[in-house]
Amino acid sequence: MKKIILSTFLFFCAIATMLAQDYTTPNTGDTFTLADIAALSPTTITATGSGYSLLGNLTIAANDGLLIDTDLLLTIDAAKLITVFGTFIVNANEVTISALDEAAPYEGFRFEEFSEIDIKNATITYGGGLRVLTETFSIDNSTITNNVSGATTSAAIQLSRGMPQITNNTISFNENPAIGSAANSAVSAYIFNNIIEGNNTANANRPQINMGTTMASESLEIIQNTIIGDANNPRAGGISIANFTGGNVNVIIDENTISNNRYGVAILGAVNDAVISNNVIEDNNIENDPNLGGSGINLYAASSINEVVVTGNEIRRNLWGITLQDQAIINLGDDATNPGGNTFSENGNNGEIYALYNNTANPVSAKNNCWIEGQQSTEEEVEDVIFHQVDDATLGLVTFDPFECGTVGVDEVAVENFSFYPNPVKNEINFNNIFSFSTVEIYGIQGNLIATEKIAEGQNVLPINLSTGLYFVKFSNDAQTVTKKMIVE
Asked: How far is CA 424 from the centre of its chain?
């Protein structure tokens, strides 16, 4: 009897699969919900309470829209694709879009040119990524994770043109890079305040942000992101901007934390206007082969248009601090517009420290930087961490005087090194309060105070009950404060 029941069940499953049909909206200028489409084509979408299953390919016609404005779960059958020619809006508190079977990913999303896409508060997982062919695209406060090759093959969010907006998201552990564009695209995206971690699980020679050329009059902006690598994928870099087609590169890379990748930032090819400023670029050495990478910042250009301005960065414990190749031109500090202010510490390999390696014939202005953090250095000591004309007569001269690096007090260094664990956080943090901090405050990314707690000396455990995202934790007493980033998983 059990065998008959099982056979009957499998028969009906097979019939349901055979009956699943693709559906295209009627192009009548209407906006549809998933419930509407389930009613119009129940073999394409089935509905159960607040859950929906997409069993066939779904296409939103050019004059139509799909609106998801209530919390729901949408599961999608293997290899099925959502294609949008019209509008696609997700604007609820919590929407999850995932595979019907996590072991059989769906194809993903294809947003055609001239479509209008606005996604908020969504979790998109176990699909083939987001292929963005439109200029009108924004995604905010969403989670993109565990996606594979499908609709996209170069990135979980693959861009093609215009000025897409990618803000306040968590993009993690996807098979391909987190965000990318083709070498010959003209994309000036605004990539702001995202947590980007462990992408390129295929472990190909690609970075987590992998961009090509930009628009001529608008900058690609990569600002205030946290970009963390995964030692299990040592071929994955941090950020790369590549100009191999003679297009434009206008880019601002500012206030990011870039750590534990194969390398930190690479700009390949000529630039029109490029600024790398105020970033913390640390421990990008996971491949641990100085012949293949490991630079905090690497610039390579077969021919140069303009210099790359590098100012105010903290560059520590990479295999190389900054490396320059072929005809790359850099401005690390001058007497005019760039105040320098870069700080270097312990960037080296094979027992040698390389804060700057100028492997070009071009001279480098590199004034007003701190070349050996934590000490007041001599000219000879600075010279020893810079490789240039003094070491090889065929190379360009680096002008590094004046240089500066005030000796930081022991107490100040110790306070700055204060930390808690684990980070990323699930439900609590642990720390040893050896500095007699009395208060801990937690702030959101917009600077809003979320919580205040009193703490005691010695070992402390602080419960954390916060949504996934990036926060700032401020520890303070009457004389000292220190603020640290906290990532909640």
From this structure: 15
Percentage of residues in the chain with pLDDT exceeding 90?
A: 79
pLDDT (0 to 100) of residue 443: 85
User: Is residue 1's pLDDT more than 80?
Assistant: no
Can you give the pLDDT at residue 448? 78
Task: For CA atoms 49, 50, 56, 60, give the dihedral sign.
Answer: positive
Output the CA torsion sign for 151, 266, 242, 369. Answer: positive
CA distance 109 to 84: 8
Domain containing residue 104: 21-153
- The values of phi and psi at residue 86, to 5°, are -100, -120
Written as one letter, the residue type at 68 is I
Residue 114 counted as domain residue = yes
Of 418, 415, 332, 344, nearest to 374 (Cα)? Answer: 344
Q: Which residue has the tokens 């090889």?
A: 392
Tell me the C-alpha distance between 190 and 383, whole Å.
Answer: 38
pTM of the model: 0.82
Could you tell me the CA-to-CA distances from 6 to 16, 20, 240, 302 in Å, in that order?
A: 15, 21, 53, 66
Q: What is the CATH number of the domain that holds 462?
A: 2.60.40
Q: What is the pLDDT of residue 406?
A: 58
Last residue of a domain, one of 114, 130, 153: 153
Which 8-state DSSP code applies to residue 43? T
Task: Report the C-alpha gap between 276 and 63 in whole angstroms.
Answer: 42
Cβ–Cβ < 8 Å for 247, 184: yes
Q: What is the mean pLDDT of residues 321-342?
A: 96
User: Cα(181)–Cα(145) distance, rounded to whole angstroms?
Assistant: 18
pLDDT digits (tens, 9 = 90+) for 360-376: 999 999 999 999 998 88
- Quick one: pLDDT at residue 10? 40
